[in-house]
Amino acid sequence: MKLDKYIGCSRAARKLQKADLVLKNAKIVNVFTDRVEPGSIAITNGMIVGIGDFQGEKEIDLEGKYVTSGFIDAHLHLESTMVNPQVLISRAAMHGTTTFIVDPHEAANVCGTDGIDYILEQTKDSPAHVYVMMASCVPATGIDDNGFTLSAREMEPYLKNRRVLGLGEVMDCMSVINGDPAMNQKLELFDGKVKDGHAPGLDDLQLAAYVIAGVTTDHEGSTYEYVMKERAMGMTCHIREGSAARNLEMIVKGIVENNMNTEGFCFCTDDKHIEDITREGDIDHNVRKAVSMGISPIAAVKMATIQPARCYGLRRTGAVAPGYDADLVVWDSLKDFNAQMVFYNGELIDDRLRVRPKPCPARLMDTVRLGPVDPQDLKIPAGQGDFPVIRMIPGQILTEKVIMPLPGQGEFVPDGRLDKIAVFERHKATGKTGVGAVLGFGLRGGAIASSVSHDSHNIIVIGDNDGDILKAVHEIERCHGGYTIVSGGQVYDTLELPVMGLISDKTYTYVNKKLKHLIAQAHRMGVPRDMDPFITLSFMALPVIPQIRCTCRGVYDVNEGKFLT
Amino acid sequence: MKLDKYIGCSRAARKLQKADLVLKNAKIVNVFTDRVEPGSIAITNGMIVGIGDFQGEKEIDLEGKYVTSGFIDAHLHLESTMVNPQVLISRAAMHGTTTFIVDPHEAANVCGTDGIDYILEQTKDSPAHVYVMMASCVPATGIDDNGFTLSAREMEPYLKNRRVLGLGEVMDCMSVINGDPAMNQKLELFDGKVKDGHAPGLDDLQLAAYVIAGVTTDHEGSTYEYVMKERAMGMTCHIREGSAARNLEMIVKGIVENNMNTEGFCFCTDDKHIEDITREGDIDHNVRKAVSMGISPIAAVKMATIQPARCYGLRRTGAVAPGYDADLVVWDSLKDFNAQMVFYNGELIDDRLRVRPKPCPARLMDTVRLGPVDPQDLKIPAGQGDFPVIRMIPGQILTEKVIMPLPGQGEFVPDGRLDKIAVFERHKATGKTGVGAVLGFGLRGGAIASSVSHDSHNIIVIGDNDGDILKAVHEIERCHGGYTIVSGGQVYDTLELPVMGLISDKTYTYVNKKLKHLIAQAHRMGVPRDMDPFITLSFMALPVIPQIRCTCRGVYDVNEGKFLT
Questions:
Q1: Dmax of chain B from CA atoms?
Q2: I need a labelling partner for A262 at 20 to 30 A (CA). Which of A238, B254, B443, B474 fits?
Q3: pTM of the shown model
Q4: Are A186 and A155 within 8 A, CB to CB?
Q5: Alpha-carbon distance A71 to B383, whole Å?
Q6: How far is CA A278 from the centre of its chain?
Q7: CA-CA distance, A435 to A413, in Å (whole number)?
């Protein structure tokens, strides 16, 4: 700490001068002693300088309410919220989240280091700690068609950026395990720093090989048994509640039933729409749900504060104690966790927080470059025996491979049970188009398309007729990216996402309204009520999550590592 | 990890090749899940690659014995063992300690960076992880006469040494708290790294100011109440069992009685003679004692392994899990903790371990430079009213100030209760000599002297007559440093410590034998049986530990921060 700042803090700590701000009459959750103690919190120069009885230039009476450190989202993709990062931060702050560990993986897949710089720049002076994990798998695998390739060489300049904490989720597990030299260079580059994992469904031996490479976190665990396999190897497990993937219930149930210690657990959202954050909350939702299931409130608070802070080496974040940043949340209770006031570096963040998105470079607003689209490419032969169909599962981003004959005479025609899925390369106008069949989406009388399509973010579309599928793809092209629904040859509505084809340049109310409108229509068109149509759709092209996907190169079996069409 | 090494580990982890070594039939303590599980441990390239059922090029049947990770001494001064660092490591290894966080504070006080380089060099290829915390307070305070001064400028080159983890115990608390610019430069230099503390007896407000500066550990806590004050502020508390200072009983009693979590606790020895390590053990002694008092064996193992590893950012140390260094200890039981086998990086360390001390630069063997010694300097007036006497306390390095008249007519003459203490500057031959009176040492008929005298390591001596005091000082000068006892004008025996006046160049059996001989004689001459004469003596000149000390400038009141004579 700079000497001037320190001297002010030290003098206030010793009561030689008044603190800048004193929060009086609080019930303070101490994550070190596991106690809740009454007291006042003294803040100077944005830092907590004392707990006890202090006088301040400004004083706020908390009337006996609970105070914790600001919550930490241990892993998220800001792009997935679909709003400008500053907009997301201002909304999440209202739920008590003040620190974000972000992986600009989506931005990097579309725009390379320009995308990473966009995230760093937009979050630079925001009222939150935003740290970046360097996107490690751009492209996610060698079988993907994305916008850019990031190697260790492009990553190296970011090592000296103090907001870059380590290597982002290493999705390409097999390259790690097999000792791929380019992957090893990235792992070596971040030696001594945190390397986030992404390891759904590895067997015991693969997981050990993955951990040996230095990967120490995972947020993909969806069962208690699996995360305990990871915990036994020392991994920190981020319990995820996103818009599509919701793993908390399964994991927390196991923790409670087995009386397992919660030391190695954190919370994250990973991919969560602004609409869901506004509706049900951010990390406060994870905490509330965990507490409702039987985790002690103090243990849950630790999972949301000091544990992720320690996991990422943040020495001054995550506790209400002297020397910690004055990121503080005042709660109504340790059951309901409704944030009453939120402070970042000692400043009250209120609902009128000024959101001032910085200008976005023009080249990031023009990233959808579609090649020639040939209607013939959408044809799938039928009546020739079994076909590998993608079964979609509500509340999961995992899929299931179902081998079955396709309906139709000579050519696959969606029949009310099965829909057609198609993916169009959109970065380099190559014209690559992959098609397949899905089960469980239930769409009738139209098509749903998106330029948000993990991780390469090509245009993905599901529909029950080729006409609406093509119409939807061209609508996405027209607005430089977005979500759209086409029905009966007409565009029903479109949420434009012109920033890299991922992010809106509008307010969150605009985005929310459009989203609600589109989601309601998708459900009316047959998508199951317990499935988020766009988020679930956006994972159907991701060839690193079992079991089966559709990319612009065709249908891919993740478990077997090969294309099936 | 280098790719070659990784590929071998990954293949062995996946059973594509045999492991180098498999420890079969073990009961493995898992510090992540708090479980003890049966299994085999597979090791390749010095690293644990799997837990389960493996085949190895070499296999050892552990017959159901317990295995933990090697223990970590979270804070020690290798110099205090008085033997070559390699000798200490070989002895401590027999007790299961495989990682040492050392502060070369004593070496630096005598020889500056040459002393630090000596410690780094001697421990470089030793069969243990030895990490260095940069000595922060050389000299310990501005009122001390030591050999060298270390500023941030001299420390900077060490930042790039991967074995230097942070800033060593910051003893000069008041310089920290008051924002001394030179101290702040050192703290700033190690920003983002661990800064060890040394904070006995600060009040709540001072402690907060100290912690705000970024100091996050302390090993000086001697009561449960005090360490909990530190824990509440997030400090990690190293529970110390050294030769002189033994804090475990008081702290662990409080933890057990209050059912406090042990998350923020580690173990250390700080200053422990090789003789005590050989006799009662090293960190295994702390663990055994803690368990005997009611700490669960797994919690105690965590305090000795994963917790200090995490505290110091050691990512591959402290657990029996894939990706961790194969530093393993086989124990007879989790009650007695007698080490049966010890592995470092997968290699069995046995009693015949070759100890090959490296050559010591000649200038480090010639550091005792005594100025003119004037017998008149030893005189203390008596019969002039009260005098501030140093009361020594068995098992403590704290002292107590007792105001009382000195016996003698005109001049203080030790009377059977009180002894004379004297300190002679020995680095720059300035001739500075400080004298005082001590209570509780009980020495009769001679003098005990030492060139080990924290932290400036001037020559310190306690005796009941000036003749023997002077004789002892000249004996220390003659052998370039050491411990000596003089009785009736004759040197009884001397342990030579020619390396910086701190360390022997002989074997540990030689040192042990000499020490036992000298200590037994000190006890025969009246030093209380429950007091280690030399270690206790060595702290009597340390002007950073309350309440009162004697330096070569005179008697010093630590609490009031001023010289009393």
A1: 87
A2: B254
A3: 0.92
A4: yes
A5: 67
A6: 15
A7: 13
Gap between the Cα atoms of B540 and A349, Å rounded: 54
Complex-level ipTM: 0.91
The C-alpha atoms of residue B265 and residue B300 are separated, in whole angstroms, by 9
**Residue A309 in contact with partner chain B when CB distance is under 8 A:** no
Is the Cβ of B231 closer than 8 Å to some Cβ of chain A? Answer: yes
DSSP class of A451: S
Q: Cα separation of B436 and B420, whole Å?
A: 6
**A231/B7 touch (CB, cutoff 8 Å), yes or no:** no
Three-state secondary structure string covering A54-99: CCEEEEEECCCCEEEECEEEEEECHHHHCCCHHHHHHHHHCCCEEE
Is any Cβ of chain B less than 8 angstroms from the Cβ of A372?
no
Q: Which residue of A has its CA nearest to B190?
A: A1
Measured on CA atoms in the order A303, A306, A308, A311, is the torsion positive or negative?
negative
pLDDT of residue B92: 94
Q: Which helix (H) or strand (E) holds B330?
A: strand B328-331
Using a CB-CB distance cutoff of 8 angstroms, which residues of chain B are in contact with residue A234? Answer: 32, 319, 321, 323-324
Alpha carbon of residue B237 to chain centroid: 15
- List C-alpha distances in Å: B288 to B224, B283, B301: 19, 9, 10
Report the candidate in B373, B415, B442, B389 with the shortest Cα–Cα distance to residue B549. B389
Two tokens, residue B57: 């090029």
On whether the CB atoms of residues B328 and B65 are closer than 8 A, the answer is no
Q: What gap in Å lies between CA B558 and CA B562, rounded to an integer?
A: 7
In angstroms, the CA B26 to CA B370 distance is: 57
Residue B355 banded pLDDT, cuts 50, 70, 90: confident
CA distances from A555 to A26, A143, B99 (A): 57, 11, 51
Q: Is the dihedral of CA B300, B303, B305, B307 positive or negative?
A: positive
In sequence order, the β-bridge partners of residue B548 are B557
Instruction: Output the pLDDT for position B352.
Output: 61
Q: State whether residue B520 sits within 8 Å of chain A by CB.
A: no
Of A327, A321, A307, nearest to A92 (Cα)? A327
Tell me the β-bridge partners of A225.
Answer: none
Q: What is the pLDDT of residues B143-156, one digit of tens each?
A: 889 999 999 999 99
Among A94, A93, A92, A70, residue whose Cα is nearest residue A81: A92
**Does the N-terminal peptide bond of residue A455 adopt cis geometry, omega within 30 degrees of 0?**
yes
Distance, in Å, from the CA atom of B138 to the CA atom of B152, rounded to the nearest integer, reads 11
Residue carrying the six token digits 């803090």: A9
DSSP B377: G
Hey, is B8 helix, strand or coil? helix
What are phi and psi for residue A122, nearest 5 degrees? -65, -25
The tens digit of pLDDT for each residue in B1-19 reads 999 999 999 999 999 999 9
